Amino acid sequence: MSHSQDTLLIQTGRNPAAYAGYVNPPLFRGSTILAESYESWEAAKQTGNPYGNYGRFGSPTIRAFEEAIAGLEGGYRCQVFPSGLSACTHTLMGVLGSGDHVLITDNVYGPTRSFADGMLSRLGVDVEYFDPLLGASIASLLRPQTRLVFLESPGSLSFEVCDVPAIAQAVHAAGSLLAIDNSWASPLFFKPFTRGADISIQAATKYILGHSDALLGTVTCNEHAWEALGKRLPLFGETAGPEDVNLALRGLRTLGVRLRQHQENGIALATALGDHPAVVRVLHPALQNDPGHALWKRDFLGASGLFAFVLDSESPQVLSCFFGALRHFGIGLSWGGFESLALPVGRPKRTASAWPHQGTLIRVHAGLEDGEELLADMLGALDSASARITRDRRDAA
Ligand SMILES: *Cc1c(COP(=O)(O)O)cnc(C)c1O
Prior knowledge:
This protein is of the alpha/beta class.
């Protein structure tokens, strides 16, 4: 990561001169915003919304955060949403209408898939999934009705890396829009707009907030995508709470140092796991032998602390043994907070591509604890699992 990006994280979204010298912008709460005069009330209608000033159209706190994210992602404009899922669903709703076709990557975040299957299909959108490794040959799936292609790279359970520039070229040649869920890398380690995306989504709940204490999402667009979405996204009336946005602005200031430590702890864990006899496969694009490594190296500026591995067993007793031995990894959903997590996934849902691994997929979030203690904890738990696997296989023989 370049020095200038670290400096931007510190300076973006701040204006001490406007707020009596205070380093941080104040937390604005409220609904009604009073105008000084009839003239200024009418003038407010010219600056973005037809109804005049109101809390739902954003406060200085919210605008500071949206400008910061738009700048870090390298996009034109951003809108904040109350959760990452809400950022995904409103992007889909904002672009798609009845009769449209959408292509969604087969490794997409599960609740985004549930929304597409449960809501978009009901509204007359033709939903189709595709193999995340398709690359340029996605062209063969594009139709005149394809309005949007939705990517997630790497997938947040299975870590396949998409060839975003190749996909973008095909998508743009067909006159469609390309959206990407960019939560894994955060806006620091992947610059979606330089790789051809039109829309970038962050589950800000993860690394941006960084402390597992709130939910937020963002949708950032280039100018072309904002022409349509900038008008439609506010129609839903979805607003994020000012306290949560304030926490997100605060989280941004340390995103660079946190992410580099998550990266270091994650790579150390993933590397060591690869040598353990109870592990069939490690899924982490920063590892040299990972199938996504070349694309990751070409397109990303770093890795976050989230990866997965396949344990050589599907036995509940072995899993109980493994999870029961962990001391520093909590069992829980989400990631991006300061604490380490391990999640039993099993087999991810796939409809357009085969899931190639035998065993149990376990997702790991490397937190900010001491790296060697994390490693010892994880290897110890794998040793317990390994001993149990050996015993069970011997007993069965
Ligand atoms: C967590 C997550 C989301 C949803 O974010 P929430 O704030 O939990 O709604 C979306 N996409 C990805 C890749 C995620 O990991």
